Amino acid sequence: MNVCADKCINEANVNKTVKNLPDQEVIVGMAEIFKALSDPSRLKIVLALLEQEHCVCDISVICNQTESAISHQLRLLRNLKIVRNRREGKIVYYTLDDDHVISLIHYSLDHVKH
Amino acid sequence: MNVCADKCINEANVNKTVKNLPDQEVIVGMAEIFKALSDPSRLKIVLALLEQEHCVCDISVICNQTESAISHQLRLLRNLKIVRNRREGKIVYYTLDDDHVISLIHYSLDHVKH
DNA sequence: TTAATATATGAACAAATGCTCAAATGAAGA
DNA sequence: TCTTCATTTGAGCATTTGTTCATATATTAA
Percentage of chain A surpassing pLDDT 70? Predict the structure, then answer.
C-alpha cells in the first residue's frame, strides 16, 4: 500500500474519523443485518411477514418461489433471529422477531414513499 | 411447486399481504441500498464519510485496505449515487450524497447503541 | 517533455450466495 | 402400521462478489 507522500494523508482528519468510527464488531453486526435484507427475495419475505404471520406454503405463493427456496431463506433469517417460527401440526408459521429490523424496514419504507 | 392441498393456503391472508406488498421495483430498490451497506468494508467507508469528506488515500488508511480495493468500492457507491466525488489536483475527495442513506445509517447506529 | 503521484480500471480468481433437485423429517389420518 | 403432506436439509451448480495485480489515466512539477 502506498503511503501517500506528503499532502495526501491529512493525519488530523484521519485520526478524528478513526476515533469516531464504531468498533469493528459493531460494523460487522450492522452489515450482517443489512445483508439479510439485501436480497430482493429475502426482503420480500420479511415485508410479507411485516404484514402478518404466515406459513411457509403461503410465503412461497406470495413470493412466487419454491417452498424449498423459501425454507432456505427462512433458515438464514432464523439464524439471525430476525424471524421465529411456531409449529401447528404439519404447518409451520413464521413471524418477525427483531424489533430493530421491523423499525428499520418501516423507516426505509417511509423514505421510499418520498 | 406444491400447491398445498386444503388448509395450508389461507387465501384471505395471502391476498391481504400481497395487496399491501410494495411493488417489485420498490423492493428491488430497497434491497439495492441494503446491499450497498451489507459488506463490512463498504459500510466502513460509508461510516468514515459520515464523519467527514475524505480522499481515497485517507480512506485506504482508515479502512486498512488497498487504494485499488477502496476505489472499486467507491465506484460501486458512486454508481448508486450514495457518494459523489470532487477532484482537487491529483487528489479526489469523496462525500456522502444520499440523505436517505445518511439517515438510515444514523438510525441503525442509534439502535446498535441499544 | 519527462517523471512522479493519486486514482481508476480491467482481468483473473477464490469465496460466497441463492437456487434446484432429491431425499429426509415430523405430524396427522386411514 | 402405512400414507400423505408441509417443511427441512444437503449436495451440486451457476452466478455474483470482493479482492489482487498489472496497467492506464489524470494532474502536477521539474
Answer: 92
Contact A54 B2 (CB under 8 A): no
Nearest-Cα distance to chain A for B56, in Å, is 9
Query: Domain segments of chain B: what residues?
Result: 11-112
pLDDT, mean over chain A: 93
Catalogue the E-assigned strands of A1-114. Answer: 54-55, 83-88, 91-96
Between CA A10 and C1' C7 the distance (Å) reads: 17
Q: How far apart are CA A103 and CA A7, in angstroms?
A: 43
Quote the strand ranges of chain B, DSSP E. Answer: 54-55, 83-88, 91-96
Contact B10 A58 (CB under 8 A): yes
B13-70 pLDDT, tens digit each: 999 999 999 999 999 999 999 999 999 999 999 999 999 999 999 999 999 999 999 9
What kind of fold does domain B11-112 have according to CATH?
A: Arc Repressor Mutant, subunit A (1.10.10)
Give the global pTM.
Answer: 0.93
Cβ within 8 Å of residue A9, ≥6 positions away: A3, B57, B58, B61
Collapsing DSSP to helix, strand or coil, B38 comes out as coil
Residues with CB under 7 A from strand C: A 2, 4-8, 35, 38-39, 41-42, 65-66, 68-69, 72-73, 76, 87, 89-90; B 55-57, 60, 67-68, 71-72, 74-75, 85, 90-92
